[in-house]
Amino acid sequence: MIEAYMDESGIHDGAHVCVIAGYWGTVKKWKKFENRWKTILRDANEPTLVEFHSTEFWHKDDSRKGVFAKWSNQKADRFIDDLARFRGFSWTTLLDCAFYTPPIGE
Predict the structure, then answer these.
(1) Rounded to an integer, what distance in angstroms lies between the CA atom of residue 87 and that of residue 100?
(2) What is the pLDDT along the chain (106 residues), one digit of tens a residue?
């Protein structure tokens, strides 16, 4: 069996581009993913870090928010480098919002 986890961004009014991204894999691949994710979190040495939200890491005003607010640029760069190397079974789709029609009732 294959499992997939997806998220979207850019479906709000006025957005020019929509992005859908996610990860997919078998149970064995997800176990590998979970182990690697735990290692990345442990290596970040931040006990309150349990999930990653890019909107807190890359905030609109070029600052970091939440748990990332106090991080040095060096620590943040190292964390993102670890995440970037860890993309084994991911996918991303970019859509022109001009062609997106929300379902009836939204």
Answers:
(1) 27
(2) 888 888 888 777 777 888 888 878 888 888 888 898 889 889 999 888 888 888 888 877 888 999 999 999 999 999 988 888 776 666 667 767 766 666 666 5
Per DSSP, the chain holds a count of helices (H) and strands (E) of 3, 3
10 Å Cβ neighbour count for 65? 14
How far, in Å, CA of 61 to CA of 20, rounded? 24
CA distance 49 to 42: 9
Distance CA 26, CA 51 (A): 21
Please choose, from the candidates 4, 36, 9, 40, the residue with its C-alpha nearest in 3D space to the C-alpha of residue 22: 4
Alpha helices in the chain (DSSP H): 27-43, 54-57, 73-85
What pTM did the predictor assign?
Answer: 0.64
Note the Cα 18 to chain centre separation in Å.
Answer: 15
